[in-house]
Specification:
By secondary structure, the protein is of the alpha/beta class. It has helices at about 20-30, 65-80, 90-95, 110-115, 120-125, 170-175, 230-240, 275-280, 285-290; strands spanning about 10-15, 35-40, 55, 80-85, 105, 135, 150-155, 165, 180-185, 190-195, 205-215, 220-225, 245-255, 260-265. It has nine helices and 14 strands. Strands 3-2-1-4-5 form a five-stranded parallel sheet. It has a five-stranded antiparallel sheet with strand order 12-11-10-13-14. It starts with 8 loop residues before the first strand and ends in a 29-residue tail after the last helix.
Length: about 325
């Protein structure tokens, strides 16, 4: 297959030591039309994934007032074409400041990135949808028969700070944190809906996996499954309400009656997208094509062109 990319595209992962960055790198490392670079502020395994002249460990922090200038200088020095942000806070920052850089940023629009990072705003965005869990504005709004409920920070990652609140006494501690979101407890199975949206806003792919083992907020074991009608409806509704670009995912969990409710939505490459990659869906390469507006659809991992619907042959879990 002829590559749709104009010359080898130089791609920078930032930060390059996250699970999603390492999987994105693994998906692209053998392609001759992509050249990979890594930037991190931490000492981690990523330095063994990149050649020495394609890797930098240095204090690049988005909280630094000089970050934009320093970051763009590096992009120009390495002649980077596409930046792939792989941390939630970095995703939001680069989405909001993309015009400051000489490279394209593989990220959804600034509003979507902001909504994805803030749970309270996320629930406000999907209010009225059947998959939106009950959210309590304050501790005073929680009736006695609602316990247990679930509390989680408005901004967090890897389930840090999230916990079950089983009584009014426990609620007093959770309610003391103004940044805490209180919502209904969901006792059912957890699933991840993995999606891909092209540069025109069209939802090209919907896949799913059931999470069977969670540790440190990461899916240590997942099982591929066909997306059911609920999952497809959730994916379409989220795609209509937000401005996604490239790969994104939503975590959902079943309530006591089996209805799926939204836990979170994230507009970056999932750390467990390796499961879809091994099933033949190349989200990483498709994302590069999408941000460059090449309209290559969702190719399979071998580079096979998708059909007219943007679906790789034999790929399960595709939105019609």
């Amino acid at each position: 297959m002829t590559s749709p990319l104009p010359n080898p595209v130089r791609v920078l992962f930032f930060p390059c030591g996250s699970e999603s960055a390492l999987d994105f790198h693994q998906a692209l490392r053998y392609r001759s039309d992509v050249e990979l670079f890594g930037l991190t502020a931490n000492e981690d395994f990523s330095e063994y994934r990149f050649p020495a002249d394609h890797f930098l460990r240095a204090p690049y922090y988005i909280s630094d007032p000089a970050f934009d200038e320093k970051f763009d200088a590096l992009l120009r020095c390495w002649r980077i074409d596409v930046v792939v942000p792989t941390h939630d806070a970095v995703v939001e920052y680069l989405a909001a400041h993309r015009d400051a850089y000489s490279a394209r940023i593989l990220v959804s629009d600034a509003r979507t990135a902001h909504v994805c990072l803030h749970k309270r705003l996320m629930y406000e965005t999907v209010a009225g949808e059947s998959f939106c869990p009950q959210v309590f504005a304050s501790a005073d709004e929680v009736p006695e028969d609602a316990f247990p409920i679930f509390a989680k920070p408005d901004v967090s990652a890897a389930s840090v700070g999230a916990h079950v609140v089983r009584s009014r006494q426990d609620l007093a501690h959770a309610a003391g944190d103004d940044a805490c979101v209180l919502c209904e407890y969901l006792p059912g199975d957890e699933h991840t809906i993995e999606c891909f949206t092209d540069s025109g806003g069209e939802l090209l792919f919907v896949g799913a996996r059931r999470t069977t083992r969670m540790r440190m907020g990461l899916a240590f074991r997942s099982t591929a499954e066909e997306p059911d009608a609920q999952m497809l409806a959730i994916a379409r509704a989220l795609n209509e309400r937000m401005g996604f670009l490239g790969p994104w995912f939503a975590d959902v969990k079943a309530d006591a009656s089996g209805c799926l409710k939204l836990l979170e939505v994230n507009c970056r490459y999932s750390g467990t997208l390796t499961l879809q990659r091994h099933r033949g869906i190349d989200f990483a390469y498709a994302g590069i094509c999408a941000v460059l507006e090449l309209g290559a659809g969702v190719p399979d991992a071998a580079g096979v062109a998708p059909d007219a619907a943007g679906v790789a042959p034999d790929a399960a879990g595709v939105a019609p």
